[in-house]
Amino acid sequence: MTDTLTRRLIKELMEFRKDPAPDLKDLTPEKEDDILVWKAILEGERDTPYEGGQWKLRINIPRNYPMAPPNIKFMTKICHPNIHFKSGEICLDVLKNAWSPAWTLQSACIAIRLLLSNPEPSSPLNCDADAETRWATNLL
Amino acid sequence: MNSQTFPLLIPEDTEGSSYLGFITIKGQEIPFGIHIDQRNARNLKNAHLRGSPELCRLVAGQEHRLEQCSTLEEFLIDLKDLLEQLVTKEENELMRSGTYYSTLLEELDAIGWDKLQSIDHALKNISLRIKYIGQHALLFACREAITYNHTVFNVLISHSDSSGRQHTIKVILPSSYPSDPPIVHVDLPTSISISLHSKSGLRKIISLFQEEVKQFQDLWLLLEDFDNHTWVLEPDKPKRSDLMRRIALGNHCSLQIDVDVKNPRGICECRLFGSEKTVGPLQDRLNKNLMRWDQSLTIRQNLEAILEMNFPSPLTTSKSEFNVECGICYSYRLNDEIPSQTCNNEKCGQPFHRACLYEWLRAIPTTRQSFNMLFGNCPYCDDNITTMVVEK
């Protein structure tokens, strides 16, 4: 399994380098000798409060990837209802039970970027930010 | 201790438990050391022999023959006897019997010395170039390694016809040759060795091979027509003995044929692979038009007419269009298996390895299993997908 895992990850890396998604500034293994730990740098979407910011993500890939989802965390502090302020943990269905091997590290990062502009107030990991979002929505 | 028999032995310590020296075998001095356990001086069962790798290799597995000795001198005499026996045996292996060489020389005489390209003094490496009418053949022989006791002959025949096929015959001559028959490895759809009897020499092998090759000309012509005009997915690198081809039809479909070696121009066995919706119409055409098979056409022409389509060829398409990777492991070949399961959804059609799809589906709580079939959802389009249980 390790061999096929490495092959898939190398293909994903090549795919990203060939055709990188906009706003995904970097997606690469953190160290040369460990392909199971990656880092990504997200850029905040335009016309959102996150515009102009850059967030570093750490991606830990389980041995049974792509059968199991990668574990992605925010390393840079971010204020968002679905992201834990201290641990950087992300509440996103594709990183949990909606995962399928059709997703890639790149598409998962894009999903996280979309989460920034479309928070899911129903599953908050940051209650203060969630309350603020609800307030803001109610006011509008 | 009789120092006359073993003058080249010196004690390493004062107790006389360790000795270093040389033992002379057939005029050759082999260095060795011996350590004796003094507590058990009655026999030398625990004597520990050290020496060169050569000595260790010779003695390996023979230690029991030295255990009976009670004194060091006896031990050394036994050791010398044993080593002499073993060395003589090895030399005999190296030098084969006179008949072996005379037969080989006779055969070379018959084949013709003018065909000889190179030879070494021990007749270990022989390479020959043989010209036939309209054909060139290269007979190449080499003794691979002494330990294997193999003589390997390779015959390369290049035909003068436009296809210029090259064939290789690998002949292994056992050390008891010519009383034991040679072992012949050929890349032919049928086995040539069955028709060989013990008296078959190299010349006989070559002529038999030529006969066989002649017989398969039409078969190879038909298969080469396939190889050159279609995208062959399997086998990866077709050999002359391969009668099966799996070709890409596009739309995640493939066709597998098995050619009848006795009647290559006859109707061949066909199997279609792919999603039901794309394979269905092709299967109908196959059933409807199979009667129109024309023996004067090639297999490819027949199949193209029957399926009412032109097969994607290397001239019009690139292989990457058909070499579609498995949607789970992202590779094409996984333990020699190619992605053979495809999603039946026309818009999806994503191929998977059976092992990968099974691995994914069995971990999903909504997957149902009935006997050895798993019913679940495609990881890509969420449409229904089924796969067989893969035994590990």
Automatic annotation (TrEMBL), chain A:
Protein name: 5288_t:CDS:1
Stored SUPFAM superfamilies: UBC-like
Keyword Transmembrane among record annotations: no
Originating organism: Paraglomus brasilianum
Presence of the UniProt keyword Mitochondrion in the record: no
Membrane-traversing stretches: none
Residue stretches making up the UBC core domain: 4-140
Keywords linked to the UniProt accession: Ubl conjugation pathway
Alphabetized InterPro entries for the sequence: Ub_conjugating_enzyme, UBC, UBQ-conjugating_enzyme/RWD
Superkingdom assignment: Eukaryota
UniProtKB/TrEMBL annotation, chain B:
GO BP, sorted A to Z: interstrand cross-link repair; protein monoubiquitination
Protein name: 5292_t:CDS:1
Pfam family, one: FANCL_d3
Cellular component GO terms held in the UniProt record: Fanconi anaemia nuclear complex
Tree of life domain: Eukaryota
Domain RING-type: 326-382
SUPFAM superfamilies listed in its UniProt record: RING/U-box
UniProt keyword list: Metal-binding, Zinc, Zinc-finger
InterPro entries linked: Fancl, FANCL_C, FANCL_d2, FANCL_d3, FANCL_d3_sf, FancL_WD-rpt_cont_dom, UBQ-conjugating_enzyme/RWD, Znf_RING
Key word Zinc-finger present: yes
Gene Ontology MF, one: zinc ion binding
